[in-house]
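Protein of interest.
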Amino acid sequence: MNRLQKVIAQAGITSRRKAEGYILEGRVKVNGTIVRELGTKVSAKDRVEVDGVPISQESSVYYLFYKPRGVISAVMDDKKRKVVTDYFLDVPERIYPIGRLDYNTSGLLLLTNDGEFSQLLTHPKNEIEKKYVAKVKGIALPQALKPLTRGLKYKGEKYAPAKYEILSVDNRTETSIVQLTIHEGKNHQVKNMLEAVGLPVQKLKREQYGHLTLGNLKPGEYRALHKKEVNQFFNS
């Protein structure tokens, strides 16, 4: 048995806090009866409706996926391009990606059917760190990258301070490998930040999300998260 607001949040309808508002407003029915009591508990056998639409009480599932380049971080694409859920055809639950990775960015992507978990990981106030490794054009020098640690504004967007590490420099090809750690998730953020300091990105990979890493996964492979790994996000 789970609290009604948690069931609504896990179905991906809205956050748990907003679900409480829906209940108080009389927008939620259980087995055909409007319920306004926040402490109400329901089982998988109960029929829950929000604004007249039944929700599915699937068991919550959580996956860590190594997204290859050239794949869309979505459940469908109107241009018929490959999407991340094409790799999960044997998973019966209706999962979706948490946040996104750009089409040509590879690396760690999480997928779930738990709306509350997704909200937790993507809400800016939680500042969950994401670690990227980028191959950039140019010779990376500390004095050039230092502005990233103070935060910067580029193309009208303001970015919070980031941490960097220069992993390698190739003077022959005039390229460098730079690791960047951020806690935001704005569109093209890593590419824009590095471009702002004169180091345009040629290749980008996300290697870590919070305490999770890719481990031994290869592009296109995934694994289920352990309960302890999921709970660590809620308890941090």
About this structure: The two ends are 25 Å apart (CA to CA). The CA atoms of residues 106 and 205 lie 5 Å apart. The chain has a mean pLDDT of 94. The first helix runs from residue 4 to 10.
